[in-house]
Amino acid sequence: MIKITRFISRITLLLTLVSTAVLAQKQAADNRAAINEADLKRDVYKLADDHFQGRVAGSLNELKASAWIAEQFRAMGLQPAGDDGTYFQFFHIQRTRVSETSRFIVGGKALTYGPDVIALAPAIASVDAPLVYVGTGTPEEMAKVDIKGKAVAILFSGTPPGDLSFRRFMLTTMNRRAAEFVKAGAVATIFVSDSRADAIYNWWSSAMEMGRYDLPGGPNTRVFAQAPLLWLPASKLAMIQQPNQQFTNVVNVESFSYPSVNIVAKLPGTDPKLKEEYVLISTHQDHDGIRRAVAGDSIYNGADDNATGCAAALAIGRAFAKKPGKRSLLIVFHGAEERGLLGSRYFVDHPTVPKSSIAAVLNGEMMGRNSPDSAALLGSQVPHRNSTELVNQAMAANQATAKFKLDTLWDRPDHPEGWYFRSDHLPYARANVPAICFTSLLHPDYHTPRDEPARIDYAKLANMTRWMYVTAWQVANAPTRPPVDPGFKLER
Fold first, then answer.
1. All structural domains of the chain
2. What is the reported pTM?
């Protein structure tokens, strides 16, 4: 009986895929001209221009870019769906950083915060203790030293530059080792980069100089005393290796509040009943602003991250404006994504339409780089898949459009980048709204000034956008909305 039930379920799934694919192919043929490279290229160049100075969250430049996006909505005829009859939903973000009154001293020599040292958590701390260097911290090296009551310095060995997955893995490893040292009695942990890890240090230090961000009252706004966890560049290794030194660390923190904004627009559906439900197109407009210069360029324009997602969302809006679906369309540009998915977290908690009316979320994140024939669909496999039907619709749309070879490694729970947890579909999935993310994944220019419009593959971006659009069209016109899979639960 169980085998028969499984057989029937597989046949039903196959028929659903076939019918969805047929509809997707027809819609793709009917609407291919609705998505064109020229529009996408124009919008990417506009948003990733130096004029917006990197669109950093909480800045006037993010607001200027947001006003430009709202004007595009008005021009294509989409209705305001923000607060108070506008396209805008404003919210506050809180920034916490290490203040300039903090001090970091090794053997009587002061270190400058940023270029010489960073704190991996801007927490209040005061330490004055002997410094002990333990090499790479092997069991043999640790057996030779007593770390109780001391600041432990350890050499951190990196991987060759360009290994993008190592950035997040490094922080996880540092936190784990520091916890081990503190448990053994250490009062502080100081990691020093080797030559291979140094490029990663430079990338992280530029970010950590800015501090941490959160919504008011969020976990990153909480400042509490803890054993310091610091990171130094390779240039400080000789200093750290000197014996019989004292380490002095006084960390003070300060907080600031800034405005950020979501931009929200809608297009009513054509069906009297289904128009009460929404297909939500999600993306984010912010990036990293102005940071430490690389090869003379200090503006992080974020062409792929995420002007490509923005251009795709605008193109989908124009296509639906020409031919609306049965369900209504809702497009949300989320502010402050780079600061911790703050705009999407805020919108999920304060939706401008009933949360129960959101049939599905299709999120666009970095859609224009890497191999022209490959892409990824985050949320397509367990435990990240929260709607099998929505995934099947996206798979059928892919076969009807670009036929991308889908990279599934980045959606796995054991991938060191944790990519599924780093874009705006996540808060919706946590709220049990069917959600997937269309992406062409990371590349060496990620979060650097080299992420410029000239490096985008616009033919690929057009194909990614068509894939996303045809998926949205299927959801908008299906007789029933995609259900959430029973038992859906993320691994963290």
1. 19-95+257-477 (3.40.630.10), 100-251 (3.50.30.30)
2. 0.88
